[in-house]
């Protein structure tokens, strides 16, 4: 029997990522009720238990697969739940897991970094092929690689510009914010009174917070980065970066790293800390929610008695069409209307020509300004448990306060008296439909055959499973309006 693909392609997203799709096919994560046997380990820590779902019915045989990798090419771990492995196979697996770990320990990386910054500028080299800072002893090994020299302290402080963003779309897609989008957060966090930021999968935010703290002596805001991209361990000491898997709360460097995180969360009895996360969007929401609850619990342990009612403040950056899914796990979260999370766009052609990365802010890039759809809003939003009336969105960009909703909303969002809320999710004015009893996108009309609103040219009784990209029922992934032909450029194609 062919093993189901735990790689969790589109099907998995459709089943597990989009709420309430009945009759869909795909793969879902199962969290067995305790006590459950410990999950077997892959190179990325404990695996997750999956079940294949066909036409809404779960198949009986469940299997373990990698929590982090959506693609079997990246991690091909597979084991049926009821499968018994021989001692020899277990030993081989353990050896494989060890072999896959980074060659240097976290401490060794930190030591290398200290040596590196002591070198004179002319000896500070970085191998682009190996994505590695080189010490003089390493030069020989890399002499045929493309090596850049004169790595300045300024460059060292901006590793996300030095490193190539990981390209693999399924597993490790890195969508770095444009500095301008990131600056919004960097400025907002101290305004809200935060002094420590736990950055989970936000390397650029981490780096900008630290830059600000070192440039501006008044800002003493601290940041700890948790990320699966261990290339970052070359640039940070142990107390500011942990190699971490956010789909299973796994610290690759064991207890010492876990303690770094715990200490960070519990400092000052947990006062003044916020978690900011921007997970890969292909990832499953439930494992993320389970992880975040573990981080919340870790923070709670450090609370003084009187403040046990408080919640760990969180910014979860994710596409708006996951709103109901996120609120299923975090009912107190609300979605902010801030829509300007623009990612940097790496000009691949120019990078080839000049041998360096050229980053372009979406706002300034002709392709986006005059792009096919003419819309340059990003579908990415902030989900948070901080009262939204505290989060002032910039009036220069058209945001204003809605006293009825008690939150800041975008220019064209309008309060609907029937829904009693400002209902637009995408920056356009939505219209109320009295049949559906809710507001819908301006491009939709009510279809009496389907019994709900849809695009005018939808096919009635069409696909029920909905689109993997946006969750809408009226089209499939391949025809999603959010995908364009320039797939290389960004993940939404706006
Ligand atoms: N917008 C952010 C980057 C988000 S890209 C910024 O500009 O800072 C998603 C990030 O999550 C990447 O840094 C990627 O390395 C990290 N990531 C991907 N899978 C992960 C996992 N399983 N565990 C932890 N981090 C992960
Ligand atoms: Zn794995
Ligand atoms: Zn090299
Ligand atoms: Zn309405
Ligand atoms: Zn309708």
From TrEMBL:
<keyword id="KW-0863">Zinc-finger</keyword>
<feature type="domain" description="GRF-type">
    <location>
        <begin position="42"/>
        <end position="84"/>
    </location>
</feature>
<keyword id="KW-0539">Nucleus</keyword>
<keyword id="KW-0479">Metal-binding</keyword>
<protein>
    <recommendedName>
        <fullName>rRNA N(6)-adenosine-methyltransferase ZCCHC4</fullName>
    </recommendedName>
</protein>
<dbReference type="InterPro" id="IPR002052">
    <property type="entry name" value="DNA_methylase_N6_adenine_CS"/>
</dbReference>
<keyword id="KW-0489">Methyltransferase</keyword>
<comment type="function">
    <text>rRNA N6-methyltransferase that specifically methylates the adenine in position 4220 of 28S rRNA. N6-methylation of adenine(4220) in 28S rRNA is required for translation.</text>
</comment>
<dbReference type="InterPro" id="IPR010666">
    <property type="entry name" value="Znf_GRF"/>
</dbReference>
<dbReference type="Pfam" id="PF06839">
    <property type="entry name" value="Zn_ribbon_GRF"/>
</dbReference>
<keyword id="KW-0862">Zinc</keyword>
<keyword id="KW-0808">Transferase</keyword>
<dbReference type="InterPro" id="IPR041370">
    <property type="entry name" value="Mlase_EEF1AKMT1/ZCCHC4"/>
</dbReference>
<comment type="similarity">
    <text>Belongs to the ZCCHC4 family.</text>
</comment>
<keyword id="KW-0949">S-adenosyl-L-methionine</keyword>
<keyword id="KW-0963">Cytoplasm</keyword>
<feature type="region of interest" description="Disordered">
    <location>
        <begin position="1"/>
        <end position="27"/>
    </location>
</feature>
<dbReference type="InterPro" id="IPR039846">
    <property type="entry name" value="ZCCHC4"/>
</dbReference>
<dbReference type="Pfam" id="PF10237">
    <property type="entry name" value="N6-adenineMlase"/>
</dbReference>
